[in-house]
């Protein structure tokens, strides 16, 4: 039994030593109570504090650099909306609904939802709108879904445009999510 007791004390000592070793990389080990371990912990804490302060300074600078929308930006969004509506009218888009998103969403100031009679017309409406926005405003719009022609999303910055085939529009009923309660989805309506 004396041999067994000494074995326990030896294994206890080994486990204490193993517990005190912290591995930092596959090639390097050091003890927690050494000066280099304390220095490493201090550097890590300093890095964390400096990173936090740098992120806070960057966020503050970004907030100062992008103030609230001015009247000029709002006028630009309204001019963009008018050009989009005239383009849709020129290309005979149907059931055009304009939804004012100011105060409801940060993604855009306006959303326009309209329909084309076929996949070919939906693609043509979208293509012409993107070309006109590039020519008139220098805006390179982001376009999704043009190849399929069922639902095309055009992100023109301050105005988001959805061009649907009628069946797809009826299925998703996108404008009903954004219209106020009791609002109608009639052609040319504005929310």
TrEMBL record:
<keyword id="KW-0678">Repressor</keyword>
<dbReference type="Pfam" id="PF02410">
    <property type="entry name" value="RsfS"/>
</dbReference>
<dbReference type="GO" id="GO:0090071">
    <property type="term" value="P:negative regulation of ribosome biogenesis"/>
</dbReference>
<dbReference type="GO" id="GO:0005737">
    <property type="term" value="C:cytoplasm"/>
</dbReference>
<dbReference type="GO" id="GO:0017148">
    <property type="term" value="P:negative regulation of translation"/>
</dbReference>
<keyword id="KW-0810">Translation regulation</keyword>
<comment type="function">
    <text>Functions as a ribosomal silencing factor. Interacts with ribosomal protein uL14 (rplN), blocking formation of intersubunit bridge B8. Prevents association of the 30S and 50S ribosomal subunits and the formation of functional ribosomes, thus repressing translation.</text>
</comment>
<dbReference type="InterPro" id="IPR043519">
    <property type="entry name" value="NT_sf"/>
</dbReference>
<dbReference type="InterPro" id="IPR004394">
    <property type="entry name" value="Iojap/RsfS/C7orf30"/>
</dbReference>
<comment type="similarity">
    <text>Belongs to the Iojap/RsfS family.</text>
</comment>
<keyword id="KW-0963">Cytoplasm</keyword>
<protein>
    <recommendedName>
        <fullName>Ribosomal silencing factor RsfS</fullName>
    </recommendedName>
</protein>
<dbReference type="GO" id="GO:0043023">
    <property type="term" value="F:ribosomal large subunit binding"/>
</dbReference>
<comment type="subunit">
    <text>Interacts with ribosomal protein uL14 (rplN).</text>
</comment>
<dbReference type="GO" id="GO:0042256">
    <property type="term" value="P:cytosolic ribosome assembly"/>
</dbReference>
């Amino acid at each position: 039994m004396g041999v067994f007791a000494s074995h326990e004390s030896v294994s206890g000592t080994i486990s204490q030593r193993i517990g005190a070793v912290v591995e930092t990389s596959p090639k390097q080990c050091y003890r927690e109570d050494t000066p280099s371990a304390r220095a490493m912990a201090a550097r890590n804490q300093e890095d964390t504090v400096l990173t936090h302060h740098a992120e806070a300074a960057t966020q503050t600078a970004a907030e100062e650099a992008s103030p609230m929308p001015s009247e000029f930006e709002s006028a630009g969004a309204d001019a963009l909306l008018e050009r989009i509506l005239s383009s849709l009218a020129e290309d005979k888009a149907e059931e055009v609904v304009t939804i004012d998103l100011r105060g409801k969403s940060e993604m855009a100031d306006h959303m326009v939802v309209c329909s084309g009679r076929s996949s070919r017309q939906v693609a043509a409406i979208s293509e012409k709108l993107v070309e006109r926005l590039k020519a008139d405003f220098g805006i390179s719009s982001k376009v999704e879904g043009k190849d399929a022609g069922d639902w095309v999303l055009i992100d023109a910055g301050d105005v988001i445009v959805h061009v649907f085939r009628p069946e797809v529009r009826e299925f998703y009923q996108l404008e009903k999510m954004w219209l106020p309660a009791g609002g109608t989805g009639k052609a040319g309506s504005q929310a």
